[in-house]
Amino acid sequence: MVITVEVRKLYKYPFERVVNIHLNKYPTPLEEHVTGIQTVDEKTDNISGIIYRRKIATCNNVIPKFLRKINFLNVNDVHIEEESWLDMKQRILNIKSRCLTWAQYSTFHEVSVFKQSVENPNWTEFHQKGSVIVTGAGKLNRLCEVFAQAFFNKGVKKSVNIMETILEQRCGHPFL
């Protein structure tokens, strides 16, 4: 079964600020599970000006102990790859993320887009859609997927809250 999560958010802050904060928000004390981020590739296309980045995030494994009885789930760290394409001319940031740690047992993909709002050029629209399919846990596949859905729903809300908190700390309240 495919588990999907989707979120849309309008940040009432300019594109440059929102993107800068997103690209630099981790690690942060607001999220204890992300323990490190390493940029492993970065290049700018000389013709289009698009900046490509590939980062690897190291996160604590938050899978409950009873599910860690499945051998491949019993790891300390989880690694997430994030690829991004920043086009400042078009004012759009496209991001693709995937889990590297359990790639042979599950498929986790997340696609995110930040773009200048059509409603107001000083605002930023955010859209994220993710999916997970677990195939390597036998009879526990569905249980792992239910956990993943709950975790991703909670994680998306937390990520949006972190963005809002950092934006307000650095830029002030959007309605002022």
UniProtKB/TrEMBL annotation:
Protein origin, superkingdom: Eukaryota
> Which Pfam families does the entry link to?
PRELI
Q: Which InterPro entries match?
A: PRELI/MSF1_dom, Slowmo/Ups
PRELI/MSF1 domain ranges (all copies): 1-175
Q: Which PROSITE patterns match?
A: PRELI_MSF1 (PS50904)
- Protein's recorded name: PRLD2 protein
Originating organism? Polyodon spathula (North American paddlefish)
Q: What is the lineage of its organism?
A: Eukaryota, Metazoa, Chordata, Craniata, Vertebrata
